[in-house]
Amino acid sequence: MLNKAEFKQIFDRYFDTIRSFIFYRCGDVDAASDMAQDVFMKIWEKREQINTVELKPLLYKIANDMVISSYRKNNTRMDYEQSMAMQSETQQSAEEELNYQELSASYAKALEQMPEIQRVVFLMNRNDEMKYQEIAECLQLSVKAVEKRMSGALQYLRTQLL
């Protein structure tokens, strides 16, 4: 069991070294001082169970655990803040969402009504990311025919969506 006088001696003897140990691990003077005080608070709270012979390794163990815990808390907090920032950036207003849904519906309707020869070429190019040469080989057409169909598809979409 530790009394006040013994605790004061331990505090005076080890506080600066524990604070330096924590500072070298976290790089923040204020955080190191706070954590060092917390280390000694834990020692005081558990003073009845502590063996004064093995005190120094215990102080370093508690300090190390606090640094790791603090690091994990900061990472979790930063991850949460980043996810909230990304969510607020990507979150659309109700009006924007409605406009997007209307445009999407108009696009789908225009694709349905587009002549099949144009739609096939358009979807192969835009959805399947095929080049005109690849589309021409696949459909057994000339590259010029693919270009003409694609041009027609784009013109059709422009008139339908605008």
Can you put this structure into words, describing what you see?
With 162 residues, this protein is mainly α. Helix content is 83%, strand content 0%. The protein has 7 helices and no strands. The protein has helices spanning 4-26, 29-45, 55-90, 94-113, 116-126, 132-139, 143-161. The chain starts with a helix and ends with a helix. The mean pLDDT is 86.
What is this structure's SSE topology?
Elements: H1 4-26, H2 29-45, H3 55-90, H4 94-113, H5 116-126, H6 132-139, H7 143-161
What is the terminal-to-terminal distance? 83 Å
**Percentage of residues assigned to helices:** over 70%
Radius of gyration using CA atoms only: 34 Å
Largest sheet: none
Uncertain stretches: none
- Helix and strand content put the structural class at mainly alpha
Number of strand elements: 0
| Morphology call | rod-shaped
| Global mean pLDDT | 86
How much of the residues is beta strand, in percent? under 5%
Total number of helical segments? 7
Order of helices and strands: HHHHHHH
